[in-house]
Structure formats: structure tokens, C-alpha cells
Amino acid sequence: MNTKPSLDGSSDFVKNEEAREIPPMRNYLWLTMFTCFCPAWPINIVALVFSVLAQKSYTHEDYDGSRRLGRKALHLGIASFVIGAVIITAYIIIHFTTHEV
Fold first, then answer.
1. Phi, psi of 78 (to 5 degrees)
2. Which of 20, 71, 77, 86 lies at a C-alpha separation of 20 to 30 Å from 9?
3. Which of the residues in the chain have pLDDT under 50?
4. What separation in angstroms does the CA of 48 have from each of 45, 54, 65, 72?
5. Is 27 exposed, middle or buried (0-12, 13-18, 19+ CB in 10 A)?
């Protein structure tokens, strides 16, 4: 295999250890923004903060930190959605089952 040297003298051949594939960014921003409409506000605000921090870590090429923060954002977003659904369901049940006489 013939490789041409580049203008600055370095070869274009990259070792396997240096070639690191960049993982996709998973900050779940869409989920955390959606859960901000649920009535579990302290939890979904924290999920939104973790999502933004995951995006910031990804731009600073801290892929492990970004994955960890994104996973926390996902878990808090799911918890916020479930808690919000329970609160809305309880409110609807109480509202339509109580009768004023």
C-alpha cells in the first residue's frame, strides 16, 4: 500500500488506537422540554438542566460525561412524565367524581 506524505510531513495513516469513533449525542432535550409542561416542575427543571449539561459536555468532547448526564436527563424526564400523568389523572378523577349537593 503506497501512501503519499502530506505537505507537512505527517502520513495519512492513522493507528487504531488514535482513531476513536465519536458517539452520537443523546441529551434527550426534546423529552425534557416536553416534560416542562407536566405539573412536576422541580423534577423536570432538573432534567432540563442535566440535558443542557450533557450537550455542553458533548461540545467539549467529554463523551463519557455527556452520556452519563444524558442518561440522568432521560431517567428524570421519564419520572417527571409519569408523576405528571399521575397528578393529572388524580385531578381529573377527583374533579369529576365529587358532586356538590
1. -65, -45
2. 20
3. 12-14, 17
4. 5, 10, 16, 10
5. buried
